[in-house]
Amino acid sequence: MTQPTPILRVPDHRPLLLDLFCCADGAATGYHRAGFDVIGVDIVNRPNYPFTFVRAEALEYLAALIASGEIHRFTAVHSSPPCQAGCALTVGTNASQGWGGDHHDLVAPTRVLLERTGLPYVIEQPNGRAEIRKDLSLCGEMFGLGVLRHRNFEPGRWTITRPAHPKHRGYVRGYRHGVYRDGPYVAAYGAGGGKATVPEMQQAMGITWTDVREELTEAIPPAFSEHIGRALLTAVRPVGVAA
């Protein structure tokens, strides 16, 4: 395992994290709570993003940072590259019904550039067939949330302990295969069929700064990235401090 580049910490200085494919900022708020300042990058304008935002194609922006040397302003990188071709919904229900169209998988090219940064990084993906190492899997039940929202994370150039997955307390509310079930969790995706309303999604995931359904359905709960961010800050050693 390649060790992370030591980062010089200045007293009262918050290290800077680059949030690629940021959408409306589920991840960034968690990293900010953990102790990072955050700059988000997305190809779509995100007026609800509560931190510094750059509208750009994420991989082009990252390549430019590497070429210019400006990447060294950052301590770490989080990325949630599109991989609809491998997500569980696409390869399952949508494919069986002939729904959906062409999808892009940007996981592999994202990883190539992240390795070139020399920085510790995280690649996030939902459950499915996306080709990432599932070194860390998080679930809303680990944090007492009203969604399950299983997500997988591949840390690069650092490691993180994998917590135990607690038993779910019941069903996700809504219809599945024509059968309606009630339960302690809401379905924070799609619409209809008993799926969560916008206010229910906001409350269940701990996201208050956007009420845009599409942004909420793509977000990860900030509790996930706060957990990762705290471990990341511990993993990256300041210059001159012994391991």
Provide a concise account of the structure shown:
The chain has 243 residues and is α/β, with parallel strands linked by helices.
Helix and strand arrangement:
Blueprint: E1 16-20, H1 26-34, E2 37-42, E3 52-55, H2 58-68, E4 76-79, H3 88-97, H4 107-117, E5 121-126, E6 136-138, E7 151-156, E8 174-176, E9 179-181, H5 198-205, H6 213-218, H7 222-235
Helix pairs in contact: 1-7, 2-4
Mean pLDDT: 87
- SSE string: EHEEHEHHEEEEEHHH
Q: Report the portion of residues in β strands.
A: 15-25%
- Helical residue percent band: 25-40%
Q: What gross morphology would you assign?
A: globular
Beginning-to-end CA distance, first to last residue: 16 Å
Overall number of strands? 9
What is the quaternary state of this protein?
single chain
Return the structural class. alpha/beta
Strand order of the largest sheet: 3-2-1-4-5-7-6
Low-pLDDT windows of residues: 1-11, 86-103, 239-243
Question: Main β-sheet: number of strands, strand sense, barrel status?
Answer: 7 strands, mixed
Our Rg estimate from Cα atoms comes to 18 Å
The total of helices stands at: 7
